[in-house]
Amino acid sequence: MELPMKVTAEICVIPMGVGVSVSRYVAACRPILEAAGLNPVLHAYGTNVEGEWDDVFAAFRECHETIHDLGAPRVFTTIKVGSRTDRAQSNQDKIDSVHAGRE
Amino acid sequence: MELPMKVTAEICVIPMGVGVSVSRYVAACRPILEAAGLNPVLHAYGTNVEGEWDDVFAAFRECHETIHDLGAPRVFTTIKVGSRTDRAQSNQDKIDSVHAGRE
Amino acid sequence: MELPMKVTAEICVIPMGVGVSVSRYVAACRPILEAAGLNPVLHAYGTNVEGEWDDVFAAFRECHETIHDLGAPRVFTTIKVGSRTDRAQSNQDKIDSVHAGRE
Amino acid sequence: MELPMKVTAEICVIPMGVGVSVSRYVAACRPILEAAGLNPVLHAYGTNVEGEWDDVFAAFRECHETIHDLGAPRVFTTIKVGSRTDRAQSNQDKIDSVHAGRE
């Protein structure tokens, strides 16, 4: 039986073959990440999320599918993902730790 | 019903909290990627694979679990993943295209 | 003569060989990025900046040097960088475009 | 006075606004990286190089400039870069370490 694995992650999608302007494709991902309960936070180079590994990557797959459905023949995505077994840590915890200069 | 989605991907795992030398953790991922039939190709900044989205990310998850089992309390991973609907393209095809100066 | 090249970028530094907690190393980068006038915005998976290519990468180099000086024998960093010739675009412009569902 | 900083790095360039096929742009980077003496090794998700920090990032900048000159209005690039003070390590050393299951 598979154990749960809580992760924090960042996704940055680049639709290719649709011209220089890609924001409407990126915007289409937000409701997917929200509906999956992943607490998405948009920034200028991606969107940060958090949740179970399987939920996170099922939602990322749905982002690819949706961007293809919107007309992009190719999608290039970069992802960062982190897991830890020593303690729970949310995306906000990570920011707070840096602001405090410790972790 | 979920349609198949063939992808090429790159994974680069960084175990944290285990000292400066991490190769044995990286080495432990190889049999996982091979057993999953993902055709892994190791390079100096990661391992390239190819296969169905769900198979690729299930194997990546297993890499995280295995690295934790080997004693790393924290794993930071970067992933690139690409899908295209216009035609099939393997990792070797991508290299061949650049060598030919076209795609 | 080298022309100016304005870029937006994201940096995410991972000190290795210093244990599982790395926030004080990440925190040491902020004053470097601020002093360089790069308008840093911290998020949970990195810091976004903007400025001239040479200024951005000189500051990123100084981050590596500082983290080594603080005692980390190894630093692994991921960077995203974007340039465009069609128009100027700040990090805030990018976020605004996605919120507007266009670019 | 600035000390030398030897790094290994990976660059993956994505020209945007030029259609779905981007290999000729990627191919144009190779002679730049070779002329800079960075020992480039192409793989399916980027090119690995090694050299002094300043030489590496001057060459990466020249890649952006060249891709723009070839007609791409926007370039999105992901970079990994590593430095270490405990010992010298080339890209080939990194691969050998993983194959040996140690570092």
Automatic annotation (TrEMBL), chains A, B, C, D:
Alphabetized Gene3D superfamilies for the sequence: 3.30.70.930
Family per record: Belongs to the UPF0045 family.
Membrane spanning stretches: none
Region described as Disordered: spans on this chain: 83-103
Domain Thiamine-binding protein: 9-98
NCBIfam families in the cross-refs: MTH1187 family thiamine-binding protein (TIGR00106)
Origin superkingdom: Bacteria
Pfam families: Thiamine_BP
SUPFAM superfamilies linked: MTH1187/YkoF-like (SSF89957)
Name this protein carries in UniProt: Thiamine-binding protein domain-containing protein
